[in-house]
């Protein structure tokens, strides 16, 4: 027993001895390796500084483009600053302390130990920060992207839909689900429902990002990739291969965020990996993308967790099975009561309750078979019409009611009836044009160009009139539920069921043909269908080869949209027997030279060669009747001299021709009838090596639309921009401007000039007309209003002022200003104005900024407050967003002034429309509002780095809504 005890004691003593030895060695290494640890730490800090500068440059570039900085990047930069300010200073202090001890006879071993230990620990944290930086695929995304389709104002929340919506929303919170499916009849409301789901999921913050992409019966992978990428803020730039785009999209979706991807209207199985949607194990993904970096105190800095869930809609339950949907829901038809309520909400309850109308209404709704699209279509067609029209509609439906008729045939007949009830023949013609392309992407500018080329519009003499006519007709078609709005003001959509009916109508009435694939084309040719047709469309379908000759003597319109870019090439004699052709639109074609049969197109008025690879095109000048010529997004290096011979041209579109470097001098000035000239993201080499001069614009006296980029403002002569301009995007400055942002305003002016410029070169006129104004690095001005222009900017809606070291005031009333300055401005963005003292200086009239909705201020270090109470009284109640960040001098957002001091203390300010407040990196912020010390109920907002001994919000300010 005594021996065993002794043995155990020896073992324990050995273990203790070994453990102590390890600890002694570790602590000794801190002392012995202190110089090595210190050098390693300094080297890593140097690398971290370099990496921070690289990231900050990318962030500054992104902010100049009005992009949203990734939250992970912001956190990383904040942690780097903490490291460099705190931890590096600690090591420096320890190093100084250790050096000081060297001058006495006995060095301080404790100082050496602390220096070696802290240098090693902090070097590990720096290494983690460097590793984390390498995971950033990009630092920013476009601000406020249109992530989700808006739910129409006339959406009705029926009981059956509410229950289904709740079930699907609950399923989306299930961490184990990856694919959820929704099926139902066409027209039953699947697309509407997923739009509502997207909106609610986004508002409830169930996902970081929500995207919706239509698929349709002939899915185009590139289009789907493009739709998703655009909503995520991902740019493919010049990446053409689908596989490469898929890889980029997969990397973006695998960025550690929770993403809901909605693929709408799937007809058959598609491979998600081909699109770039990978459903790999989320846990493995998180381990790859996310990491925890701890500071010296052990607190976590960042951890990224990601999850992708797919929501599919389809007419076919089996397709959802094939797509491996783990939960499937059915969207059923409306009950008779719900359908009648929808009908009554559209036509008006008074009509439905009228004894003469009510029985007809009941029968009409019954014919709609519970499908919302049918109910809304017939209801909109009958709204505000007489009893005779109702009775006639019911009679027509009854006549097409054989005993064996299919339910969907009934719906077709209802939609077709709505088309028949259109009183405008022009509206009917425009509706039929919409059948020739994809249902989810009907481009209004294309409709203008087609309609003008085919003489569809009566009493239309100019492009401006044609555009106005198209918008009026589209409004009528929307009112009849035959067209739908989209998030893009230049795009409308059509319900897939309505689109089917529309194609059926054009096939019967106008002999328009939509070709689906090679077999379909061969079958049509064998039957001689092309001989009498008036329009042919290949809308991104599976056609790989065009016929040598297409004998269509009555053809008016031909659309050839290649599904694979540059795959299709027009045979030499393809157009030989199309003498009456008026509109030709080619997309994605390879045209090393124009086919010799082009000489036959003597009646052509609209020619669009978009997204094409173009070579020799000089023979295009033979098309003497051409009104509209477009090379949008095409690969073209030089515009031929012969273009100058096309003196009848009214529209020339060179937008997104990024390779276009040569436009010979005196070509543009010869196009004296030109009404619209588009050169955005295209030619900008004005007055270089025999190129066109910007002064040639002076000779275009009919120009109403101009998109142009001038890099050198000194090239601008006096009054270079025509007074006739009604729409423009004029970008001035040596910078790569972003032309891809959606055009929400029709008149945009962007200025980036480092020196004071001559405003009389036509810029002053554009300033007065602009709806959107960007001012970047425009030096030589202390006050934006009056010095830049002494008018009131009467049409301006969005004002962005950036990167200026001289501007002290946006408005300085001491110079004398109009009482209606900036009357329409809705958003005000002020970035990097280091000398800005006040936004409003002096007395401001009530008309100034009277429609302001959003204000954003960043990096304005001389600014102590945004505005005073008296200044803000006329717009404070309608503000929807306030964002203030990185402003070191800001003390209060709202401050009291003399005028307010004379008012009773009980006065309060209501922020009744406010939706968001962001106050970030404001080290001297004391409170939101100065002048009130009573505490009020706290409200949800995004507030960071605020140290205050008083309440942030006081009773002076009431905030009713924050969402």
From TrEMBL:
It holds the Pfam family LRR_RPS2. Keywords: ATP-binding, Coiled coil, Nucleotide-binding, Plant defense. Residues 176-338 form the AAA+ ATPase domain. SMART domains: AAA. Residues 31-97 form a coiled coil. Gene3D superfamilies: Helical domain of apoptotic protease-activating factors, P-loop containing nucleotide triphosphate hydrolases, Ribonuclease Inhibitor. One of its GO terms (molecular function) is ATP binding. Transmembrane segments: none annotated. GO terms for biological process: defense response. PANTHER family: AAA+ ATPASE DOMAIN-CONTAINING PROTEIN, NB-ARC DOMAIN-CONTAINING PROTEIN-RELATED. Belongs to the disease resistance NB-LRR family. This is Disease resistance protein. It comes from Corchorus capsularis.
């Amino acid at each position: 027993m005594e021996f065993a005890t002794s043995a155990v004691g020896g073992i324990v003593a050995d273990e203790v001895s070994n453990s102590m030895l390890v600890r002694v060695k570790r602590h000794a290494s801190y002392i012995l390796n202190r110089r090595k640890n210190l050098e390693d730490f300094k080297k890593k800090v140097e690398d971290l500084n370099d990496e921070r500068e690289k990231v900050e440059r990318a962030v500054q570039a992104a902010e100049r483009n009005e992009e949203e900085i990734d939250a992970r990047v912001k956190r990383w930069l904040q942690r780097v600053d903490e490291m460099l300010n705190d931890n590096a200073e600690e090591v420096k202090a320890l190093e100084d302390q250790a050096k000081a001890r060297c001058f006495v006879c006995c060095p301080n071993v404790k100082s050496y130990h602390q220096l070696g230990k802290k240098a090693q620990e902090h070097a590990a944290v720096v290494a983690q920060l460097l590793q984390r930086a390498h995971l950033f695929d990009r630092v920013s995304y476009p601000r406020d992207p249109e992530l989700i389709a808006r739910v129409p104002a006339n959406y009705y929340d029926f009981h059956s839909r509410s229950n289904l919506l709740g079930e699907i929303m609950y399923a989306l919170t299930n961490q184990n689900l990856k694919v959820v499916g929704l099926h139902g009849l066409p027209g039953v409301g699947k697309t509407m429902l997923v739009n509502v789901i997207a909106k609610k999921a986004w508002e409830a913050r169930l996902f970081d990002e929500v995207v919706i992409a239509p698929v349709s019966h002939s899915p185009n992978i590139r289009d789907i990739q493009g739709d998703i990428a655009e909503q995520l803020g991902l740019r493919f730039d010049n990446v053409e291969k689908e596989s490469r785009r898929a890889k980029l999209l997969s990397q973006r979706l695998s960025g550690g965020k929770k993403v809901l991807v909605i693929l709408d209207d799937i007809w058959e199985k598609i491979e998600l990996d081909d699109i770039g949607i990978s459903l790999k194990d989320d846990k493995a993904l998180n381990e790859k993308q996310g990491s925890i970096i701890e500071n010296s105190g052990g607190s976590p800095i960042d951890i990224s967790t990601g999850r992708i869930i797919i929501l599919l809609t389809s007419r076919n339950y089996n397709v959802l099975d094939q797509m491996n949907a783990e939960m499937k829901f059915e969207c059923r038809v409306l009950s008779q009561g719900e359908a009648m309520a929808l009908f009554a909400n559209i036509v008006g309850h008074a009509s439905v309750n009228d004894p003469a109308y009510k029985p007809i209404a009941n029968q009409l709704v019954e014919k709609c078979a519970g499908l919302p699209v049918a109910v809304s279509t017939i209801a909109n067609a009958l709204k505000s019409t007489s009893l005779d029209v109702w009775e006639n509609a019911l009679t027509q439906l009854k006549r097409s009611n054989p005993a064996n008729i299919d339910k969907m045939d009934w719906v077709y007949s209802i939609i077709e009836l709505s088309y028949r009830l259109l009183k405008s023949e022009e509206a009917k013609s425009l509706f039929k044009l919409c059948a020739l392309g994809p249902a989810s992407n009907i481009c209004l500018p294309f409709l203008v160009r087609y309609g003008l080329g085919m003489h569809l519009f009566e009493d239309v003499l100019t492009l401006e009139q044609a555009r106005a006519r198209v918008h009026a007709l589209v409004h009528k078609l929307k009112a009849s539920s035959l067209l739908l709005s989209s998030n893009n003001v230049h795009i409308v959509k059509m319900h897939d069921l309505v689109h089917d009916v529309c194609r059926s109508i054009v096939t019967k009435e106008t002999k328009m043909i939509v070709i689906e694939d090679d077999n379909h084309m061969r079958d049509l040719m064998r039957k001689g269908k092309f001989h009498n047709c008036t329009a042919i469309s290949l809308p991104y379908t599976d056609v790989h080869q065009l016929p040598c000759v297409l004998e269509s003597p009555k053809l008016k319109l031909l659309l050839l949209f290649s599904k694979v870019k540059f795959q299709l090439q027009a045979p030499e004699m393809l157009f030989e027997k199309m003498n009456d052709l008026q509109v030709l639109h080619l997309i994605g074609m390879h045209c090393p030279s124009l086919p010799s049969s082009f000489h036959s197109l003597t009646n052509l008025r609209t020619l669009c060669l978009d997204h094409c690879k173009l070579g020799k095109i000089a023979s295009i000048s033979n098309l003497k009747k051409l009104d509209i010529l477009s090379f949008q997004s095409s690969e073209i290096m030089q515009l031929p001299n012969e273009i100058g011979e096309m003196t009848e041209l009214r529209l020339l579109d060179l937008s997104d021709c990024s390779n276009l470097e040569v436009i010979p001098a005196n070509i543009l000035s010869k196009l004296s009838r030109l009404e619209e000239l588009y050169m955005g993201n295209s030619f900008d080499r004005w007055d270089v090596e025999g190129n066109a001069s910007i002064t040639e614009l002076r000779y275009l006296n009919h120009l109403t639309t101009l998109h142009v980029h001038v890099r050198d403002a000194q090239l601008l002569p006096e009054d270079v921009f025509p007074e006739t301009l009604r729409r423009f995007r004029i970008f001035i400055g040596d910078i790569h401007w972003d032309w891809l942002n959606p055009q929400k305003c029709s008149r945009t002016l962007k200025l980036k000039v480092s020196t004071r410029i001559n405003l009389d070169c036509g810029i002053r006129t554009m300033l007065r007309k602009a709806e959107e104004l960007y001012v970047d690095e425009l030096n030589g001005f202390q006050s934006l209003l009056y010095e830049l222009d002494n008018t009131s900017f009467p049409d301006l809606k969005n004002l962005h002022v950036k990167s200026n070291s001289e501007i002290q005031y946006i408005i300085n009333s001491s110079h004398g200003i109009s009482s209606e300055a900036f009357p329409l401005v809705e958003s005000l963005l002020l970035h990097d104005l280091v000398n800005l003292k006040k936004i409003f200086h002096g007395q401001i009239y009530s008309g100034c900024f009277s429609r302001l909705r959003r204000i954003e201020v960043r990096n304005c270090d001389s600014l102590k407050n945004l505005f005073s109470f008296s200044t803000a009284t006329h717009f404070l109640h309608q503000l929807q967003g306030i964002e203030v960040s990185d402003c070191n001098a800001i003390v209060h957002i709202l401050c009291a002034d003399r005028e307010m001091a004379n008012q009773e203390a009980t006065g309060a300010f209501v922020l009744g429309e406010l939706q968001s407040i962001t106050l970030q990196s404001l080290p001297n912020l004391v409170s939101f509002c100065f002048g009130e010390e009573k505490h009020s109920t706290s409200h949800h907002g995004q507030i960071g780095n605020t140290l205050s001994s008083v309440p942030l919000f006081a009773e002076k300010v009431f905030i009713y809504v924050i969402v």
